[in-house]
UniProtKB/TrEMBL annotation:
Annotated spans, Disordered: 824-847
Name assigned to this protein: DNA topoisomerase 1
PANTHER family: DNA TOPOISOMERASE, DNA TOPOISOMERASE, TYPE IA, CORE
Originating organism: Epilithonimonas bovis DSM 19482
Gene Ontology terms describing biological process: DNA topological change
Amino acid sequence: MPKNLVIVESPAKAKTIQKYLGSDFEVKSSFGHIRDLPKKGMGIDLSNFTPDYEVSADKKKLVTELKAAVKKAEMVWLASDEDREGEAIAWHLADELKLKPENRKRIVFHEITKNAILKAIDNPRDIDQNLVNAQQARRVLDRIVGFEMSPVLWKKVKTGLSAGRVQSVAVRLVVEREKEIREFVPKPSFKVEGTFLNQGKQEIAAKLKKDFDKESDAEQFLEQSKATEFKVLNVETKPGTRTASAPFTTSTLQQEASSRLGYNVTTTMRLAQRLYEEGFITYMRTDSVNLSQEAITGAKAQILSEYGENYSKPRNYTTKSSSAQEAHEAIRPTDFSVKSISDVQLNKLYQLIYRRTLASQMENAKIEKTVIEIGNAKLPQHFEAQGEVIVFDGFLRAYGIVKTDEDDDENNEKLLPKVNVGETLDYKKITATEKFTRPSARFTEAGLVKKLEELGIGRPSTYAPTIQTIQNREYVDKREIEPQTREIVKMTLGKTGVKKEVLEEKFGGDKNKFVPTDIGEVVNDFLTNNFAEILDYGFTARVEEGFDHIANGDQKWKEMMTDFYSKFHPRIEDVEEHADRATGDRLLGTDPKSGKNVHARIGRFGPMIQIGEQDDEEKPTFASLMANQNIATITLEEALELFKLPFELKEVDGHPVSVGVGRFGPYVKWGDTYISIPKGEDPLSVDQNRAEEIINEKKIADAPIANYKGEPVTKGSGRFGPFIKYKSIFVNVPKRYDFDNLSQSDINELIDAKLEKEANRYIQQWEKEKISIENGRWGPFVKFGKAMFKIPKKADDSKYESDELKDVSLDEVKKWITAQDPKAFAEKKKPAAKKKAPAKKPAAKKK
């Protein structure tokens, strides 16, 4: 029987650690937190900010197993991660498992290697209550902000919305960037570039040092250049260096994995977690760029072996951020002799970490930059050609060069031909092209992480969940922005003179960048107008500093909460009572047919256009916005176009056909069937022929692929992946099946399994009351509408068996529901009568 019980967070980590410890140790996983604030209700006593932690239903069985294991062990080693979250997990385990100080030890390590584990066992400590309190402060403060601000949004904007201290600030960044792009006024200028030939007929590409503001000035320069003899005025060669970047922190890893591998933040953290748990890299949540002496020595040995002594330059880096919270290392390989691993996806990220760490310990790259000045004294400006040669590749040998989004396409390094000062050059062509200034780029995931880090908002562990949350809440998305078209002037000086042409260029298009949704903008504007301090970047950063002070033992966490809440709660009450309802209402003008006002605003089902007022005798008419439109930019003309939808077409196969736009986008309606119009296609352009094509495509897609007990079976692909449909039952098709070539036996097997599962789902069901007792993954539960409730224990403190639940009465089940939600069966209040709003004047037309 093992004398020692080691508890870690994840089963993967447990498996790795078990390999390094002898038979005296048993390693078990807590699967993360075993308890937390309750999912329903605040879960905090606001008089003294004491949290009411509870073991979640899905962890009760696990906790029972851990308690049994604790009883058998002489010593319990709490080996959760060494950050604040890990410290809190250890504290919750100690408290819930009733571990006495003399029978528990806390161990930490930032890599899962045999040496690190054994060293940790030799150097145990107790739980650091300051770190625990810093985590509690964050958890409690964020719960209070979310639970008090969200109901205000339900009342003042739309039900089902949420707010949060970090997520709302992240949304604000995206919204403000979008507004900046909308308000940006592009300024034109003319960029002049020339291609010159030296005496050996080698081409030299150069550009004028300064752009021209006016077309006439650019044209005049080309006319002057026509009869000009171009010469090499100066050749300058400068030595330079490029320095390796520091090893990865969480943030820089997320950014580089995005630009080099195309991984989103969530994917990067998932793969990094696996690399850490399997012992390949050090802990992946860190603000530190520091490397241990052991790592520096290991990297040096690998560099000497692989590249030679002239490539080695051992160095350590210091963390610039004053708020770097954890004292452990940068992210690095645990063993530099392991150059690759077998898992392809893991290996891509591992290689990035491996090469970045190695490069940080290598010599600078030496470059030689050449600048050639070309021109004539008669010309007002001269051309400049730049080129770079890598004399010694240094760290680039391991890491290479990566081009960022911010790099100018025209700054590519190139090798220039040999020329001498005074040498005459012949121009091949000189062009003056109209260019427009560009607004700041929309945020990528990596760019948003970088900005949050710059502002001191959030910490390494919060970036991925924050970015995922704002997308899940549908405050931002990554929809494709279709480019616009504008005319540009291009003038080319060739041997026959100046040729002028007007070209079209596309601009403003974007893919895979964050764009705020309409509801995201409305929520952001409401919060920034009414909770300016909470949404303030400086305030959010100061809160993070407060957590740091608590972690260092310099501040008591409940004092911080008292100070925060004394200012925050009165603001909540004031906004709830006095703030106007927010719909993002924008008056577009007047409908020429009816003379009524036309509004763009948020409605019950999302962004829409409204003609008329709510208090008019004749009810307003509505139209949904299309996916590529938004409240802030739609014009009156575009809005009125939407009212041409739906429109009728001729019948197909005896069923009426119409084209419209609804909650889920534009559609063709054929009889009772709604068929989505392909993305990017304008529904107003759908004529009879196109509608019939769409209907025929649907017919083919919906054609039965088989029969089951005499009934047709169809297949399709939906939100949760491929499925087959039998009667009204949808059956998901797992990846182990060949979806394109399902056999009859496959179909029988899938439907049989689904029907058996459905038959075992309900223990009792009262359809009229929308109440049921169902079998769930973690045991039986009660469902009322969409809400789920626990089944209480019997009077003798034992659990109900399934057979016993078959005999429970409806009244008894209602008592169970009411005990957990006293308002579950309360009558809903009728909405108060709306006050008559004064008629709004149409917006004045711009002159």
